[in-house]
């Protein structure tokens, strides 16, 4: 008999469903505070459906995307659990919605800071390689010597890079479907 999708799962069921050893799940609980299975008498773990979905997203980022544990922790800190759950489920519409919501929470782009979208940018080769100033890292080589700086991206450039990441994830999903 199959369990309801809303039913709690034991560690052995989760490990089997996600093709992970049980000790890895226990280890991830120590590294990702967002994974909080309910513990009953004797320390027996019961994972809620949202815990399983989050673990699926963590597994995808670590094993399929090549992220480190620190990288996934940073993703969780910056984007929240729902972001990783959506990535783990392959729900790119939800990933995009979360990204747009996050972008709306940051300072809105001014008209002058909006990226230019003409036909050349949509089709064909770019005119020139983006320089350091494009990524918010100071002067480019053409403008003179590069000064040491904090290396932090501006909000606008961070949003552009995040959009590029989502585009790449969509491309990967499409390629995976073809294979």
Oligomer: single chain
Protein structure class = mainly alpha
N-to-C SSE series?
EHHEEHHHHHH
| Tally of helical runs | 8
**Rg from C-alpha positions?**
21 Å
Main sheet overview: 3 strands, antiparallel
Strand content: under 5%
Mean pLDDT: 75
CATH architecture of the largest domain: Orthogonal Bundle
Q: Just give the CATH class of the largest domain.
A: Mainly Alpha
Backbone shape: globular
Terminal Cα separation, in Å?
A: 33 Å
**Unreliable runs, pLDDT <50, ≥5 residues?**
117-137, 139-143
Number of strands: 3
Helix fraction bin: 40-55%
Total number of domains: 2
Strand order in the largest sheet? 1-3-2
InterPro entries: DNA-bd_dom_put_sf, MerR-type_HTH_dom, MerR_fam
Pfam families: MerR_1 (PF13411)
Keywords: DNA-binding
Protein name: MerR family transcriptional regulator
Q: How would you summarize this macromolecular structure in one to three sentences?
A:
By secondary structure, this protein is mainly alpha-helical. Helices cover 54% and strands 4% of the residues. The chain has helices at residues 11-18, 22-31, 49-64, 69-79, 81-89, 92-105, 119-122, 155-178, and strands spanning 9-10, 38-39, 45-47.
């Amino acid at each position: 008999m199959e369990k309801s999708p809303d039913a709690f799962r034991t560690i052995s069921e989760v490990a089997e469903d996600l093709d992970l050893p049980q000790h890895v799940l226990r280890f991830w609980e120590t590294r990702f505070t967002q994974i909080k299975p309910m513990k009953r008498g004797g320390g027996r773990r019961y994972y809620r459906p949202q815990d399983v979905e989050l673990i699926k997203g963590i597994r995808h980022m670590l094993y399929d995307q090549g992220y480190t544990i620190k990288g996934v922790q940073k993703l969780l800190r910056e984007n929240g659990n729902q972001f990783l759950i959506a990535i783990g489920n392959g729900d790119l519409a939800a990933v995009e919605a979360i990204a747009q919501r996050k972008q709306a929470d940051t300072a809105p782009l001014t008209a002058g800071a909006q990226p230019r979208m003409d036909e050349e940018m949509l089709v064909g080769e770019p005119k020139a390689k983006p320089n350091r100033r494009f990524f918010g890292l100071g002067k480019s080589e053409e403008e003179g010597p590069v000064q040491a700086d904090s290396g932090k991206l501006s909000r606008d450039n961070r949003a552009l890079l995040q959009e590029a990441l989502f585009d790449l994830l969509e491309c990967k999903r499409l390629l995976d479907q073809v294979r």
